[in-house]
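User: Just a sanity check before I run the rest of the batch. Below are the structure tokens for the first item. I only need the designed sequence back.
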């Protein structure tokens, strides 16, 4: 996403292409984008770089959130809009099918059944293989799944953003839906490298903590980033990022009822 959108100034095009090619060389096989990211620029980037490897990768994108006539971000999940956006994404991605197509956000003005019905039509037309949702409640997931099987739900989830643990992870287990965590390293804050958040670009700082919210460093014990977890990671001879991801991977509601993290009757999405 941040090759074209959000979190500071995007890198130059040649650098962004190198990042994607390096990911391919490292064995990455799933690439996730959205019409919103750079208002189409990110899909165009992925389409240009990944086209020769299309048969070897899983390609995901999202629709239902783009820019309005004033150029500002807007949610629009009306069926006709979703179908038009999918066609536009297919063109930018230089492919004839999207493996996983998410509803980027639920539209409060459109019944979820109508939006999911449009995505189901795209599946039947062969333009989309599977569908997903992003940042929705457990109740909305169940409503959507009753209209058409939902393959995945993508929401923010990290050691400092645990809202999915309230109900969404349980719903995913119940329905057999894969949970995809975005920003699992808290937008890089849990990587152990950031020492002074005041040095961040204004846009990045805003993403880490908005008005009325505590300074990001307060989330890690009130001191500079890394103070609370860096000594542990050194002792374990593992990077802070790796430990944060491992801890997140083993967290879910099953921990509450006493089953061990590796219990065979647990399912981690």
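Assistant: Here's the designed sequence for the first item:
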């Amino acid at each position: 996403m941040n090759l074209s959108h959000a979190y500071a100034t995007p890198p130059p095009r040649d650098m962004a292409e190198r990042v994607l090619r390096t990911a391919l060389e490292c064995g990455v096989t799933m690439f996730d984008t959205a019409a919103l990211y750079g208002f189409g620029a990110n899909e165009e980037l992925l389409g240009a770089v990944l086209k020769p490897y299309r048969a070897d990768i899983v390609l995901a994108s999202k629709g239902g959130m783009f820019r309005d006539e004033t150029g500002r971000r807007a949610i629009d999940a009306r069926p006709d809009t979703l179908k038009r956006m999918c066609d536009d994404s297919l063109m930018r991605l230089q492919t004839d099918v999207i493996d996983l197509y998410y509803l980027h956000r639920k539209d409060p003005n459109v019944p979820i059944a109508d939006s999911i019905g449009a995505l189901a039509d795209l599946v039947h037309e062969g333009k989309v293989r599977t569908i997903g949702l992003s940042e929705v409640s457990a109740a909305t997931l169940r409503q959507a799944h009753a209209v058409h099987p939902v393959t995945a739900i993508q929401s923010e989830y990290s050691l400092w953003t645990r809202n999915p643990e309230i109900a969404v992870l349980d719903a995913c287990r119940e329905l057999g839906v894969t949970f995809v965590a975005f920003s699992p390293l808290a937008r890089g804050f849990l990587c152990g490298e950031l020492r002074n958040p005041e040095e961040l670009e204004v846009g990045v700082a805003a993403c880490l903590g908005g008005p009325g919210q505590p300074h990001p460093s307060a989330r890690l014990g009130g001191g500079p980033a890394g103070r609370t977890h860096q000594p542990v990671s050194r002792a374990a001879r593992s990077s802070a990022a790796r430990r944060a991801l491992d801890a997140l991977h083993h967290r879910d509601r099953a921990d509450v009822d006493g089953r061990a993290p590796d219990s065979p009757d647990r399912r981690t999405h």
